[in-house]
Amino acid sequence: MDMSMSIMAAETKQMWKIGLESTIIPLGVPEVTAWREQNQLTLRFSDITKLALHLPTHSGIRLDHTFNHEQLPLPGHYSCPIGVIEYEGRYFTLFDPEDKTDMEVYSGQRGWEWVWRTEENQENLVLIWGQAESLAECVALYRTYRPAGIVNKEFTAPIKRIITLDMMLSSGEISHRFDDATALINDLASRQLAEGTLIYIPGWCGPYDKDYPNYQPSEQLGGEYGFTRMVETAKLERACIMPHMNYWGYDPGLQLFDDKQLMEMQLRDEHGEPAGWAGPTSPFIYMRPDHLVWQNVLLEQISSFLAKYDVQAIMLDQIGFEIKDKRCDYKTGTNQILSHIRKLRPQLIISGETLNDELISQVNLIQLWGMPWCGLDVDLTAFTSPLIKELFPEVAFYGHLGLPAISEGKYTWTNHEYLRTKGIEAAFYAAQKHLQHMGGIPHVRLHDGSKGLDPISLNYLQSL
Fold first, then answer.
1. Within 10 Å of residue 195's Cβ, how many Cβ atoms?
2. DSSP-based three-state secondary structure for 422
3. What is the pLDDT of residues 224-239, one digit of tens each?
4. CA angle 321, 402, 369 (to 5 degrees)
5. Phi, psi (deg, nearest 5) at residue 446
6. What is the DSSP string of 323-355?
7. 101 with 116: CB under 8 angstroms?
8. Which residue ranges does the record assign to the DUF6259 domain (predicted)?
9. Where are the extended beta strands (E) located within 18-121?
C-alpha cells in the first residue's frame, strides 16, 4: 500500500511516504523529536524538565516532569484529536483535522512517547502542527479545521444548582426513596432554593447498573405513585428530576434476546472478545448503538417512560464512548437514538459524561470525569489543564456520579478507596475545588434524607 503522511505548519505543507524505516522530523521544540513509522507518528520527549503536555482527557490534564510517567498510559478516552506542548511560555499544538487517528501517551525511557496511529488501510494521514502564544490560540487553530457542534445553552440555563440523591445501591440496599426526594424539594422550597435545582437520582429503577433497559420506577422506592408525586412536586416548585439511564447497557438477566441475536448485537473489543461492564457495580453487556433491534428495545423503554412521566432531564450514561468494533457505526447509531428522543421531547435536557466535537449539540449537560473520586486509581488533581474548558466553552459541566459528600454515607458509585485514603472532608473539598476550576454548576451529594441539608452543602449550593 502506497501511503503518505503530512504535517502542516503555518502555510506550508510537507508530505512524505511512510516506510519501514524511521525518519526524524524537525519540529523546533528542544528535546522533542518526531519519528514517522509504519502507520504511525511518534513524538519522543528526551528531556521533560522544561516541558508540559496538555491533553483533552480526564476533564483536561497537564503533565509535567513531576508526574510519575510510569502511570502512563492513562485509562479513559480523549475528547478531541489534539494535544499541546508547553515550553517556556510558548505553545506547540498537534492535531488530526479529520479525526482518523488514535492517539495515546506512553511512558518512555526519560519521560513520554506521544503516539498517533492510523488504520493499516489508511492511505493518507494528515496532521497539523502549529505554534502559538497561548493555549487559547492553539484551540482557535484547531477549531478552524474542526468546528464544534452548536450548544443550545437555553436547555441548561435554568439549572442553577444540582444535588445527587442516591436511591438504590448495586447491592439492593436502599439509600433514599422517592418520598425523601419529595421532602428535599419541599425543604429547598422553604429556603427559596427549589427553583432551578436539578436532583439527579441514580438507582431509581432498581439496584444501580442492573436491569438495563428496564426504565420503570422501583416499587421498593415508592413505585409509580411515589415517583409521580416526586416529579409533580418538582414541577410545582420549578425544580427538575433527572433519572440515571444507560444508552448501550443491557442486563442479560432480562433475557430479551436469544444467543444468536446477542452474537450480532453485543459489541466486541479489538481482540474480538464480547464487551461489557465488569466494574465494581452490577455487570452488564455493551450493545451496538447502531443495531436496529437494540435501538427499538431501548427507545421503546425510554419513549414509554417519557410519555408517562413529565421529567425535564435524563442521564444517558456512557453515551459517546466507543469500543473498537469495526461492525459498529457509532456516529449514525448515536444520532438515531438522540434524534428519536429529541422528537419526543425537543426541550429535554440530555446529560452524559463523554465530550466530543459533535455530541455536544445533542448532549448538553456533561459530568466531569477523570478524577480519583470517579473510581480511578490515578490521582490527577494536581495535573489539571484548562484545555477542555477552552475546547468546549459553551458546555454546562457538573460533578461526576462519584462526587464526594461532606458526610459519611452510601454511594451508588464506588469511590470508597479515595475517601479512605484522602478522608471524607478533604475529598469533598478537593472535588468542589475541581468543579469550580472547571466553571461547573454548583453541585453536592446528600446522604440520609431525614437530616436534610447540612450547612456546608447548603453554602456550596448558594455559591452561584
1. 14
2. helix
3. 999 999 999 999 999 9
4. 35
5. -115, 150
6. ---TT--HHHHHHHHHHHHHHH-TT-EEEES--
7. yes
8. 206-324
9. 23-25, 32-37, 40-45, 51-55, 61-63, 82-87, 90-95, 101-107, 112-118
144 CB neighbour count, 10 Å cutoff: 10
> What is the C-alpha to C-alpha distance for residues 341 and 347, in angstroms, rounded to an integer?
10
Rounded to whole angstroms, the Cα distance separating 197 from 128 reads 43
Question: pLDDT at position 155, please?
Answer: 85
4 - beta bridge partners? 17, 124
Q: Kindly list the distances between the CA atom of residue 194 and the CA atoms of 186, 232, 234, in Å, as whole numbers in the listed order.
A: 8, 13, 8
CB-neighbour burial class of residue 9 (10 A; exposed 0-12, middle 13-18, buried 19+): middle
The stretch 323-334 carries a mean pLDDT of: 92
pLDDT reported for residue 86? 94
DSSP-derived secondary structure letter, 375: T
Please say whether the beta carbons of 317 and 248 come within 8 A.
no
- AA identity, residue 248: W
**Nearest alpha-carbon partner for 441 in 388, 399, 403:** 399
What is the arithmetic mean of pLDDT over 100-120? 85
Q: Which residues does 163 contact at the CB level (< 8 Å), separation at least 6?
A: 184, 197, 198, 199, 200, 443, 444, 445, 446, 461
Peptide bond into 283 cis (omega under 30): no
Alpha-carbon gap, residue 362 to 47, rounded angstroms: 42
C-alpha grid cell, residue 303: 419513549
| pLDDT at residue 61 greater than cutoff 70 | yes
The residue to which cell 449539540 is assigned: 361
- The closest alpha carbon to 386, from 84, 116, 29, 43, belongs to 84
- Overall average pLDDT of the 308-337 stretch: 94
Cell of residue 127, nine digits:
496532521
Say how far apart CA 33 and CA 110 lie, in whole Å. Answer: 13
Average pLDDT over every residue of 16-43 = 68
The answer to whether residues 164 and 242 touch, using CB atoms and an 8 Å cutoff, is no
Sign of the torsion formed by the C-alpha atoms of 170, 235, 309 and 341: negative
Q: Are 116 and 100 in contact (CB under 8 A)?
A: no
Confidence (pLDDT) at 124: 66
Residue with cell 433491534: 293
Enter the C-alpha cell of residue 184: 428535599
What pTM was estimated for this model as a whole? 0.92
Tracing cell 418520598 back to the chain, one arrives at 179
Per-residue H/E/C for 245-298 = EECCEECHHHCCCCHHHHHHHECECCCCCECEECCCCCCEEEECCCCHHHHHHH
> Residue 26: its pLDDT value, please?
62
